[in-house]
Amino acid sequence: MLKLALNLFRAFFISNVMSNYPSFLSKNDLILVISPSGVVDKEEVLKGARLLEKAGFKVEFSLNAFNAHFKFGAKHQERLADLQFALDHKIAKAIYCARGGFGITHIIDELNWSQFKQNPKWIIGFSDITALLHTTYLNGFPSLHASVLQGLPRLSGDYQNKLIESLSGNISGLNATSTFNKSGKASGQLIGGNLSLLVHQIGTQTELDYRNKILFIEEVAEPLYHIDRMMLQLKRAGKLENLVGLVVGQFSNLTEDKSIYGQSVEEVILAHCEGYDFPIGFNFHIGHGEVNVALFHGAEVELVVENGVAKLTYG
């Protein structure tokens, strides 16, 4: 009876979480493309848009999507206006960020989410867009941590297809193998993103509660001492001690290696997690690479790590 009651509770809980999911996309649904952070490569964005159109979706660009203001996709108020327009849109089913880079945190606190809550839609992106995914989560909705549109043509063909299929709700779990994996089993909501952005949210309106969560992290083009410092910041801020699991994605194009710093990135992460009993899975295909797998940020997941293999599955 107890097992039956627990199963019924779990089903009820998942159904309530799923009820907050925006509608998955069907053919001819509209995707809005915005550039809320860095300046974009127009040709690559257009290539990405053609892939979406080939899959049967309609694509429209925000007014300032191809503007440029120094390093930014447009002036702060122009990017804010485009993002607010997209959040408020009554027909679109998804908002696809053209690029990460830097800039979303300049405008993130000025957004009004009231219309979005009436017409929720999938927000898609990663890297700097991590802050937007967090804000979406804090407003009660999941989002899609996946390649920005500019990066979609650069993914290998299978991963392009998997990302596009995820827009229709067709998404599966992930497996990863590493000698650094730490065994264990955990269930909880999946949150996370780019490590730099996670650290930058601490003490702000978009800071997340990490308690009882499964955290995923990825990073690009950082020296190992930056990784060390950021992991230490998470630890000192109390973000690691109440996790139930950790999923480590790609740490690509690092500007230091173990011969310089004395530790590998895996060893740095394990050192800061020493003393905690949650499972850790390394080498997941999440991040700045040609095999960036889409994840539902905010979804209920299970992480099982045993015999060097980590498996992440949706609840």
Automatic annotation (TrEMBL):
Residues 31-146 form the LD-carboxypeptidase N-terminal domain. The keyword Protease applies. It holds the Pfam family Peptidase_S66C. Keywords: Carboxypeptidase, Hydrolase, Protease, Serine protease. GO terms for biological process: proteolysis. Residues 187-303 form the LD-carboxypeptidase C-terminal domain. The active site is at residues 127, 218, 288. InterPro entries: Carboxypeptidase_A_C_sf, Class_I_gatase-like, LdcA_N, Peptidase_S66_N, Peptidase_S66C, S66_fam. Belongs to the peptidase S66 family. This is Muramoyltetrapeptide carboxypeptidase. It comes from Marivirga sericea. The lineage of its organism: Bacteria, Pseudomonadati, Bacteroidota, Cytophagia, Cytophagales.
